[in-house]
Write a structure and sequence with these properties.
Layout lengths: L1 H23 L1 H9 L2 H14 L2 H30 L4 H25 L5
Length: 116
Amino acid sequence: MAYAALKLLITSVLIVLISEIGKRNAIAGAILASIPLVSVLAMIWLYIDTKDVEKIASLASGIVWLVLPSLVLFIALPLLLRRGVEFYLSLGISIALTVAAYFLMLEALKRFGLKL
């Protein structure tokens, strides 16, 4: 239980740190946020927990394919905000579009015989 709390604390601190840096310097925050910290942390925690490199390889392969639909959020959100759509509505629409893009990608991968 203490180990899970430590993982949660480290991960949370990184997210808050990036947010605070982003308040002061948007470019620095964007650079830090664009680094796949969540993915890297997930792979580190998975390795520490299992030592199973095949699971890590599968996770990394899945991440590669699912990065593409995640870009929908970062395209849709600034477009909506710059068109004057309120922040939370823009965020909700962007998330919904991203979820739809994930389902479309998973369906496309299945049709091409790729299984995550």
